[in-house]
Write a structure and sequence with these properties.
Shape: globular
CATH class of the largest domain: Alpha Beta
Radius of gyration: 20 Å
Number of helices: 11
Number of strands: 15
Order of helices and strands: EEEHEEEEHHEHEHEHEHEHEHHEHE
Largest sheet: 7 strands, mixed
CATH superfamily of the largest domain: Medium-chain alcohol dehydrogenases, catalytic domain
Length: 323
């Protein structure tokens, strides 16, 4: 029998239980997938803690990669033996899983399952942020919070390849060096530097057209002070907690600012959108312009340990759970 991590009640990492599961044959539009690796993301914490409520019990995990074992009667675009990956459908923390076939994309030969597991959600999020939410152009200067994290390192590399100048906040000197090595021209160590002051200095007071913020409460309000008139605040995560309520009048007072809270799944809802996002991601990785840094690996059964490391900000780059 296969095993999976199951959550029967919301709470801390200790609620992640390693259990035997039964996997049924796929339905007409489904695939039975034998997984090789799954990705670890902060959204998994939000699901586990109930911030993003899920029906109990459930198996967390929103990205992974593996090999197709069985296909449903109506599935035509993948076949048994294909190497595939996905981002989106809950249920990733498992040795085997059923998944809707239209959520799968085939992996190029030069991208491993471990790379894919560490890049599908984070990489397509980066594609969404840089190409759709705010189309970054050569010559732009942008701010990326948590620049040494999984999404952060991909954003830094991709934006740099486009020709943008990246300012990135990090927590330590080691993370600053990692971000710098991946395209961040101006790492800012927030424990000893004021990122608002640094943005003013680096831009000669012009400020920024966009800020990408996955941190939330600790950075949100001061990030607004980094934006030029009619700049865009992109809040796509809240690792430090939810942003406190504020009046929309504040956006007017600070320069008729725009605010968006994008979710990847609204940008890859259709099959065409999913394939286009994955195509751009695979191309930029295969070109070498973006390197996927799998910095931490945990056995799937040790998912609780991985969650503790993630929440303690002890991880950099991508983290995967191996099977």
């Amino acid at each position: 029998m296969a095993h999976a991590i199951r959550v029967h009640e919301i709470g801390g990492p200790e609620v992640l239980r390693w259990e035997e599961i039964e996997t049924a044959d796929p339905g007409p539009d489904q695939v039975l997938l034998r997984q090789e690796a799954v990705g670890l993301n902060f959204i998994d914490v939000y699901h586990r803690t109930g911030l993003y409520p899920q029906p109990l019990p459930f198996t967390p995990g929103t990205e992974g990669a593996g090999t197709v074992e069985k296909v449903g009667s109506d599935v035509t675009h993948v076949k048994v033996g294909d190497r595939v990956a996905y981002a989106g459908p809950l249920g990733g923390y498992a040795e085997q899983r059923l998944i809707d076939a239209d959520r799968l994309v085939k992996l190029p030969d030069d991208i491993s399952a471990e790379q894919a597991a560490g890049m599908m959600l984070q990489g397509m999020t980066a594609q969404m942020l840089l190409r759709s939410v705010f189309p970054v152009a050569k010559g732009d200067t942008i701010l990326i919070h948590a620049a040494a994290g999984g999404v952060g390192l991909i954003l830094c590399q991709w934006a740099s390849a486009i020709g943008a100048t990246v300012i990135g906040t990090v927590g330590t000197e080691e993370k600053a060096e990692l971000a710098r090595a991946h395209g961040c021209a101006h790492p800012v160590i927030y424990s000893r530097q004021d990122f608002v002051v640094e943005v003013q200095r680096i831009t000669d007071g012009e400020k920024l057209p966009v800020v990408y913020d996955s941190v939330g409460r600790d950075t949100f309000m001061r990030s607004l002070d980094c934006l030029k008139v009619r700049g865009l605040m992109v809040s796509f995560g809240q690792s430090s907690g939810s942003v406190d309520a504020f009046s929309p009048n504040l956006l007017a007072q600070k320069g008729s600012l725009y605010l968006t809270r994008p979710t990847l799944f609204h940008y890859i809802a259709s099959r065409q959108q999913l394939e286009q996002s994955a195509k751009e991601l695979f191309a930029v990785v295969s070109s070498g312009k973006v390197k996927i840094e799998v910095q931490q690996r945990f056995p799937l059964r040790d998912a609780a340990e991985a969650h503790r490391a993630l929440q303690a900000r002890k991880t950099t780059g991508s983290t995967i759970l191996t099977i």
